[in-house]
Amino acid sequence: MSTTKTSSTFKIGGEIEISRLGYGGMQLTGHGVWGEVSNRENAKNVLRAAVEAGVNFIDTADSYGPHTNEILIADALQPYPESLLIATKGGFDRTGPNQWTINGNPKHIKEAIEGSLKRLKLDVIGLWQLHRFDPKFPIEETLGPVADAVNAGKIRHVGLSEVNVEQIERAEKVLPIVSVQNLYNLGNRQWEDVLNYTGQRGMAFIPWYPLALGPDRMKSKIADIAAKHDATTAQIALAWLLKRASNILLIPGTSSLPHLQENMAAAYAELSDEDFAALSV
Predict the structure, then answer these.
(1) 64 in catalytic set
(2) What does the alpha-carbon distance between residue 130 and residue 132 come to, in Å, rounded to a whole number?
(3) Measured over all CA atoms, what is the biggest interatomic distance in the chain, rounded to whole angstroms?
(4) In what order do the strands lie in the sheet with 204-205?
(5) Is residue 11 one of the residues assigned to a domain?
(6) What are the residue boundaries of the NADP-dependent oxidoreductase domain, all occurrences included (predicted)?
(7) Closest Cα partner for 68 from 108, 99, 42, 38?
(8) CA angle 24, 246, 89 (to 5 degrees)
(9) pTM of the model
(10) What gap in Å lies between CA 247 and CA 249, rounded to an integer?
(11) Structural domain tally of the chain?
């Protein structure tokens, strides 16, 4: 496993420079990512604090709520700072708390894009991502409305989520892919080949569930390294990801201002090569 010198920024699509430590909006919803967040004013304050702290990359989806998260982001941050990139996703139906149904129907995808534009109050979505490949529809059909939106100037860049290398290559025959959002963290590295592929191709790799620490045997080792850096275990988990590859972008989410500050401080926990190797076994 390779390591890299930690850089603070990355260029999405080779042109949109953003901080590698962003913010994920999923937690600013109701229980089970369903319905409105319980304290909306607090949620708006968290979003504003994130931007004030230097976050210029926010990840959301039309399925968070559904719809409530995108509306919240617009209410909190409009007018948007010029440097802010809001990434959203489409391709799920929601029928209740913790219920997610893949929907790659081109009609649904077109409606998802148009809905996100309206709810986020954007003329152009900087990064639109497909939640999942739907086995009921060829990916060429699913991505048809996405390509149309790119050509119409409604989407600037396109990404994928939970995909393997073969699926990325198939999607790239339809339109350029600039990012991949897969499950990846210190305790779960099943997508190493995808991470390496995206790095070689200059694509962003956006781990979801980035704070998982892995098996119990790792926790004492993480705690020792955290103590050495006067950091929390969560900060070390994020610092490890930042050091793992220069194309990794982090989107830890929280509804707590203190936790937001803790996550932002992870950028300053510079792991040594020895620390990184100890955590990478």
Answers:
(1) yes
(2) 6
(3) 53
(4) 23-24, 57-59, 85-90, 125-130, 155-161, 179-181, 204-205
(5) no
(6) 20-279
(7) 38
(8) 30
(9) 0.95
(10) 6
(11) 1
Helix 40-52 / helix 68-77 crossing angle, nearest 10 deg: 60
CA–CA dist 242, 263 (Å, integer): 12
First-to-last alpha carbon distance for the chain, in angstroms, is: 9
Identified catalytic residue from 23, 64, 80, 268: 64
For residue 13, is it within any domain? no
42 vs 256: CA distance, rounded Å: 8
Residue 215: predicted pLDDT: 63
CATH number for the domain that contains residue 70 = 3.20.20.100
Six-digit token string for 276 = 């990184």
What is the chain's pLDDT, residue by residue, as a tens digit (281 residues)? 544 445 699 999 999 999 999 999 999 999 999 999 999 999 999 999 999 999 999 999 999 999 999 999 999 999 999 999 999 999 999 999 999 999 999 999 999 999 999 999 999 999 999 999 999 999 999 999 999 999 999 999 999 999 999 999 999 999 999 999 999 999 899 999 999 999 999 999 999 988 877 667 678 889 999 999 999 999 999 999 999 999 999 999 999 999 999 999 988 888 999 999 999 98
Residue holding tokens 């991949």?
Answer: 180
The reply to whether 37 falls in a domain is yes
Q: Which domain holds residue 104?
A: 18-213+246-257
Q: Which bin fits 202, alpha (ψ -120 to 50), beta or left (φ > 0)?
A: left
Residue 185, domain member (yes or no): yes
SS3 260: helix
